[in-house]
Design brief:
Elements (H helix, E strand, L loop, with lengths): L11 H50 L48 E5 L2 E9 L6 E11 L5 E11 L6
Antiparallel strand pairs: 1-2, 2-3, 3-4
């Protein structure tokens, strides 16, 4: 059986070009899907860290102003503004700058582990004004590629019965 010369169809080259275009589109969609999954995973981690920080902060705020968990244990945030100008006399940041507990050279006042999250906090007394405490809460974690992440929250607590 012979086909007439005027019969139309696809050549092998046209089929190959169509397969190549389809493959490139499929690879682009695959990369987009991978990026979406990674972004979703990070968003989930950040939500868990924020929720953990919120719960820990609520527990701390429910405690008495003089509770041992709200004390500047290493003294790096206490009595550093003797002239009352709101500036750390030691040139620091009232001990609140230790917000990278993944770095072993930094000191935090308190640290607890919660699953793969580490929750730490530093306390600075009489900062930013007398009769207050600033609590800096730091939540750190590593993602599934072992990349470290952290989120930091600050909260100022007023002494309910300041000594005047």
């Amino acid at each position: 059986m012979r086909f007439p010369f005027n019969q139309r169809g696809f050549t092998l080259l046209e089929v190959f070009a169509a397969i190549l275009v389809f493959a490139l589109g499929a690879m682009a969609l695959y990369r987009l899907q991978v990026a979406t999954i990674q972004s979703s995973s990070f968003a989930n981690d950040l939500t868990e860290a924020t929720t953990l920080a919120q719960g820990t902060m609520e527990e701390l705020l429910a405690r008495d102003y003089l509770d041992p968990n709200l004390v500047d244990t290493d003294g790096d945030g206490t009595n550093q503004d003797l002239n009352g100008d709101g500036v750390d006399d030691n040139g620091g940041d009232f001990g609140l700058g230790h917000d990278n507990p993944l770095d072993s050279s930094t000191q935090v006042d308190f640290a607890v582990q919660s699953g793969r999250y580490q929750v730490c906090w530093n306390v600075a007394n009489d900062h930013p004004i007398p009769a207050t405490k600033t609590i800096r809460l730091i939540v750190t974690w590593h993602d599934n590629k072992e990349v470290p992440h952290r989120t930091v929250f600050n909260y100022v607590v007023k002494n309910p019965a300041p000594d005047l």
